[in-house]
């Protein structure tokens, strides 16, 4: 079939990479598995070889959904939907393990939507995701680096994460112009409590929309008494957004929530 650019379809075809992804996921027979964007079912087939308890796939493309139903029959449950419209609907007796070769154009949107779920660790046990390499490096970035930003902070708030390996463009059909990376994210059992995840998202957006500026400007946007807030939180206003630790952004968010 001809991949659809509108859906960001780049099918993973490299047999070794597919096997390495499965090895990384360490599938057990009692696992509940969700696969996002299975496409032609190459990774799906590898997952089934490990005989998990249940495999659900979410595929937006109606033609591919029908092909997957025909190919795998009762061995999988196929949901023909956009993952962004159904990610919050999964509710099982134990957390689900998730695999996904995510479309480049909406991968960060998928991740941030999942992060904002309440009780994330009760719904999902682990995410084994293929991202564009540049996005993967932003996700796992540490503070004081160029890659560090909004998605680094949001994901670190709720997850432990690691980049496993890079994937050549030649491993996909059609061949993309960029490299990809496999990233593993595991929800934390304990997180710093904030009232609403949207507040942390708003604060990080405010800071990193001006990432080359000193943080005095975004602090002034967030707080009338920004000098007092900075003093209370021991923040140097001459720093730039990438110089603040994740814990500092959490404290800024908590302070912001007290005033709203």
General description of the model:
With 260 residues, the chain is an alpha/beta fold. It has 2 domains: 5-187, Rossmann fold; 197-258, Helicase, Ruva Protein, domain 3, CATH 1.10.8. It has 12 helices and 9 strands. The protein has helices spanning 15-25, 42-49, 62-72, 83-86, 107-115, 120-123, 133-139, 150-158, 197-208, 216-222, 226-232, 246-258, and strands spanning 11-12, 32-36, 54-58, 77-79, 96-101, 124-132, 159-167, 172-173, 180-187. The strands form 2 sheets. It has a 7-stranded mixed beta sheet. Strands 1-8 form a two-stranded antiparallel sheet. α2 (42-49) links the parallel β2 (32-36) and β3. α8 (150-158) packs across α12 (246-258). The longest helix is centred in the last third of the chain and has 13 residues, at 246-258. It starts with 10 loop residues before the first strand and ends with a helix. The model has no long low-confidence stretch (mean pLDDT 93).
Task: Present the secondary structure layout.
Blueprint: E1 11-12, H1 15-25, E2 32-36, H2 42-49, E3 54-58, H3 62-72, E4 77-79, H4 83-86, E5 96-101, H5 107-115, H6 120-123, E6 124-132, H7 133-139, H8 150-158, E7 159-167, E8 172-173, E9 180-187, H9 197-208, H10 216-222, H11 226-232, H12 246-258
Parallel strand pairs: 2-3, 2-5, 3-4, 5-6
Antiparallel strand pairs: 1-8, 6-9, 7-9
Helix pairs in contact: 5-8, 8-12, 9-12
């Amino acid at each position: 079939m001809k991949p659809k650019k509108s859906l960001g379809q780049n099918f993973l075809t490299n047999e070794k990479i597919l096997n390495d992804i499965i090895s990384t996921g360490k599938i057990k027979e009692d696992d509940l598995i969700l696969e996002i964007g299975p496409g032609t079912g190459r990774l799906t087939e590898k997952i089934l070889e490990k005989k998990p308890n249940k495999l659900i796939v979410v595929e937006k493309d109606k033609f591919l959904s029908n092909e997957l139903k025909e190919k795998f029959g009762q061995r999988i449950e196929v949901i023909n939907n956009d993952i962004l419209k159904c990610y919050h609907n999964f509710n099982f007796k134990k957390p689900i393990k998730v695999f996904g070769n995510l479309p480049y154009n909406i991968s960060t949107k998928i991740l941030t939507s999942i992060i904002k779920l309440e009780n994330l660790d009760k719904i999902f046990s682990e995410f084994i995701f293929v991202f564009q390499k540049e996005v993967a490096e932003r996700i796992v970035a540490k503070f004081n680096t160029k890659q560090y930003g909004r998605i680094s902070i949001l994901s670190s708030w709720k997850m432990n994460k690691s980049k496993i390996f890079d994937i050549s463009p030649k491993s996909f059909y059609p061949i993309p112009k960029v490299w990809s990376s496999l990233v593993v994210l595991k929800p934390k059992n304990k997180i710093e409590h904030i009232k609403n995840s949207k507040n942390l998202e708003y604060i990080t957006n405010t800071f990193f929309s001006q990432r080359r500026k000193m943080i005095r400007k975004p602090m002034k946007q967030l707080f009338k008494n920004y000098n007092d807030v900075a003093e209370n939180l021991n923040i140097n206003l001459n720093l730039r957004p990438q110089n603040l630790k994740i814990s500092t952004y959490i404290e800024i968010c908590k302070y912001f929530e007290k005033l709203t």
